[in-house]
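Work Package 3 (structural annotation) set out to generate three-dimensional models for the target panel prioritized at the project kickoff. During this period the team completed the workflow that converts sequence records into discrete structure tokens, so that structures can be stored uniformly alongside our sequence database. As a representative example, we reproduce one entry of 378 residues exactly as it appears in the project archive.
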Amino acid sequence: MNKRFFQALAILMGHIIGVGIFSLPFIAAQVGIWTMLFYFLVLGGVVVLFELLYGEAILRTKEKHRLPGYAYKYLGNWAKNLALFSSGLGLIMAILAYIIVGGNFLSSILIPILGGSSLLYIYIFFALGALLIFFGVKSIARVESILLVFFLAILVLVFYKGAPLINPSYLFIFDAKYLFLPYGAILFSLVGTSIIPEIREYLIEKPKDLRKVIILATLFAALISLLFTILILGVTGSETTSEAIAGLKNYFGNGIVVLVLLFGILATFTSFLTCGLTLKKILWYDFKINKHISWAIACFSPLALFLLGLTDFIKIISLSGGTLLAISAILMILIYLKAKTKGDLEPAYSLNISKFFVYSLIIFFVIGAVAELIYSLL
């Protein structure tokens, strides 16, 4: 394994471990760690499988695309439009989550110093990001791999300080009415498909490594997320907050909490920029919308949803993961089936999976999406 393999692994892991991880301790506080472990095992396997299918489809294609391009090539214009809808709305929902969580992290640090309200710092967080997206700051996806190292260092420090404070009884609670709650959030927290085409380009000299990178990145991200969940829930118990960090103030010194909050701000802000720039370019390049109007839609659509009252962080990522990501996953699986016969390259790896199993995966996502909609709207 060469240097580029480990860099690709770090980039994909850094992309996967994002705002979703902060929702998991609160969800675990409703259903307990055994339920979370079950979901991680099932959804981790599902994510690895459909991302490997998508990866093979990418390796079978000569041209460089993103999901809408692959959908158009193999499935037609209807699939391109559906991919643009699912990825576009998914990006809007993700940006909304980043604004809410990042703004709250910023307020947790600055309110004790400067005063003001949480809402003020959400607006400041949004305004800074929107300004940088307007001027077209270059993609900073690789910065996420640096943030991953920062986060792991903080996690080790917090685990070192917090391990003696873990109360095992906090981990094994269960409330049946929240049984389906982890589905969308964990799916959201494990998926990294949007960057897989870039990982393929990064591994251009050894494309076969794409399979190992997908498997290992998902596995490590799931383990880190599970450890983070156990640590936060084990320490804060019923006081676990929806974004995980605020509840730590009563258990750790101010310095450690500020470090965790700083990581949260950096992680959500860089992801806000990456998603905002991606959505702006989709509208600008694919829909041929004016550059400045594309910027306004990309930035102010999430803000409009926030002003309309969509402020529940857990519900936002659950809906996004359970429904919009499901639509994209189904498209990726259909693309794979077409690429098997219509692809124009011999792939670096090929999965030997029966069509029955592949179609069963599609049914799994359909049932999950319907269940998520019902659960979220009730």
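The mean pLDDT is 90.
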